[in-house]
Design a protein that fits this description.
Two copies of one chain form a homodimer. Helix content of chain A is about 40%, strand content about 15%. The first copy, chain A, is an alpha/beta fold. Chain A folds into two domains: about 10-25 and about 275-380, Aspartate Aminotransferase, domain 1, CATH 3.90.1150; about 40-270, Type I PLP-dependent aspartate aminotransferase-like (Major domain) (Aspartate Aminotransferase, domain 2), CATH 3.40.640. In chain A, the strands form three sheets. Chain A has an eight-stranded mixed sheet, sandwiched between helices. In chain A, strand 7, helix 8 (about 205-210) and strand 8 (about 215-220) form a beta-alpha-beta unit. In chain A, helix 4 runs parallel beside helix 5 (about 110-115). Chain A starts with 9 loop residues before the first strand and ends with a helix. The interface between A and B is large, with 61 and 61 residues.
């Protein structure tokens, strides 16, 4: 169970994959067959700081095939998951007192990382197409007036955590334009893009900017298993070399040689694409059930996003239902969600928001948890 | 093969375990049996930021039993290997421009980490009992005169990398005294202590200081397999809580849930102690062969340490044999060693030193490599 989960409760806060979505059989097959004596050093000894070669090769080939990126092995390194990559990027690109740009709301763990690095965090609000460019420009002009150059803009571009929103192509292009004008890097935390349920994906920032001044993070946490702690970073060859060589990011023999080799063999065996395809159906079904339950249970005045992929739905509560009061009452009934307050630089901005995760809880609990929340919100309006 | 190894060469530089010392059968048994469906989330999902509970429990019990430490679960967290821990400690305890204290020579990757964090590195020489206290005091007085308080003293206390030296109990006590007087932390990178071939171990800094202001790092890299990337950090409960909560050290669900669970189950099955016992015999044999080969091959004027454990022997070359010239000639004959220059803040201090690792190469290569070096050094004296 995720940390902090009370037995018997409905943890709608948990951004974990449901245990039945973890490919235990497939991974066990790989681990049983691939790991023989001539191969053992690749699994068990120190590796290369850039990461498992066969996994790098697989990812480069896949990204070039699926997106026409045109990257090579020098553009990619293996990392211990994407949150870890956000920490790495922050460590490498900033010093205490520097400024970074984020969406409001934004990924909670990223805000925590930026705060503990003692950065000035400048947030601009999002709408259904992502960050609002006029507001971002206002941030940038204000920083410029103070003589501050922001180091990077951090974004989850697809099925954003917490809102589920995907940023439009136009917004991406406008941000790339601003990144050139104001000289900041774009850190693209692209963890959910493989879990698209419908519609076409806009090109990545990395693609649109032709790889210039973009760090793009990816992960196997959502499409294989978080416990393996394997992700990747795509950037220009000189940036990758800088990360690999940096004493500040020393991993001691590359990111997780054992699990990286397992993931590489799993992917090379050809079963990963089918697994991702299957997962898309599973998560789409979960999303549909959650949206249907919201439709059936929520009183008027509550609005929510319609994510086309990923793990999350973002709710806006009516003024009669402050999230703190709802949280207290919901927990009494065993329902836990992620309060909107954790996703804002200024927590009060999230006082009428909450994030529901449809990825983890059993389907009956998903319906029941949403129904309980709907009843509580309705009662608060009385 | 370790990174940078030329096929057919004798890589006496490699601080890797020899592939035949990796417990492939034992680990495969664990991975095949322990990882069943009710257990799968522990292996494959996000874990607790402090690390796998069962591994924490095992380590606490073992350290209390073997050393009488008297620690509890709040004193220990799981990390992704000890080099990673050095990075964590540096990140958490220092800011650019701060000073740290090290041995001369010291672990090369630690120096790399400190340098890239833009720290002032103050080194004092070692003798057969570890750092020379009078020289360390001179460093401290000089820093104090400049108004600088060093943040920590970094040391590999047992079978030091690169020298193989173990610091005496008296020196440890003197350093703890100084750490109180000058208010610095001791970072004890205790990676080799389980590989003791003979004699009794002095108590750890953590033990002698009753856990006050000591961070002690341990690892399974030397006694199980580096590719699993599992180590641990012991410190006071408030320091551990600080590390676990810190956004600067975010791992995204704890250090490597999959391999941590594998290691925990391996250890709990009771086979680890026997494996460590067996490894001690294997590495002792390798050490003996290396020392015998040095005795037989080295001309007069070459001296070396007599490590009682660990991986390394440290050679001092005569003035006729500068390490740069020897390195060039040795590489022409396919023999690679670690030049002494990488282990000093001021590389020139290592211009007549080299580190031999007896952990990795096949035994005939160990003898042959040392013989080739002996011949080259003898010829340089002619």
């Amino acid at each position: 169970m995720p940390q902090g989960v009370v037995a018997g409760s409905i943890p709608l806060f948990a951004g974990h994959p449901s245990p039945d979505l973890l490919p235990i059989d497939g991974l066990q097959r790989i681990i049983r067959s691939a790991w023989d004596a001539p191969n053992v050093a690749r699994f068990l000894n120190y590796g290369d700081e850039q990461g498992d070669r066969q996994l790098i090769e697989f990812l480069v080939e896949r990204l070039n095939r699926a997106e026409g990126l045109g990257i090579c092995g020098e553009n990619l390194m293996i990392i211990g998951g994407s949150t870890w990559g956000v920490g790495m990027a922050t460590q490498q690109l900033t010093a205490p007192g520097d400024a970074v740009l984020v969406d409001a709301p934004s990924y909670r763990d990223a805000l925590h990382i930026f705060r503990d690095h003692r950065l000035e965090i400048c947030a601009a609000p999002i709408d259904d197409e992502g960050i609002i460019i006029a507001d971002l420009e206002r941030c940038l002009r204000k920083l410029a007036a103070d003589g501050v150059a922001p180091r990077f803009y951090y974004v989850v571009p697809n099925f954003q955590n917490p809102s589920g929103i995907t940023m439009s192509r136009e917004r991406r292009l406008a941000i790339i334009e601003l990144s050139r004008q104001y000289d900041f890097v774009i850190v693209e935390d692209d963890v959910y893009s493989d879990l698209r349920f419908e519609g076409a994906a806009p090109p990545s920032f990395f693609d649109l900017a032709r790889g210039e001044n973009v760090l793009r993070l990816g992960t196997f946490s959502k499409t294989l298993a978080p416990g393996l702690r394997i992700g990747w970073l795509i950037a220009s060859p000189d940036r990758i070399a800088g990360f690999v060589e940096s004493g500040m990011l020393r991993m001691g023999g590359g990111a997780n040689p054992f699990t990286a080799a397992v993931v590489a063999d799993y992917c090379h065996s050809g079963v990963w694409e089918a697994h991702v395809q299957w997962l898309r159906g599973q998560y789409r079904r979960r999303r549909d059930i959650a949206l249907k339950a919201l439709e059936a249970s929520m009183p008027s005045g509550v609005t929510w996003t319609q994510p086309r992929g990923g793990y999350f739905i973002w709710l806006r509560l009516p003024s009669s239902a402050p999230v703190d009061a709802l949280e207290e009452q919901a927990q009494e009934q065993g329902v836990y969600f992620a309060s909107g307050k954790g996703f804002y630089v200024n927590p009060a901005d999230g006082a009428h928001h909450l994030r529901l995760s449809f990825s983890f809880v059993p389907l009956p609990d998903l319906r029941k948890g949403i129904e309980i929340l709907g009843n509580l919100i309705a009662r608060m309006a009385e």
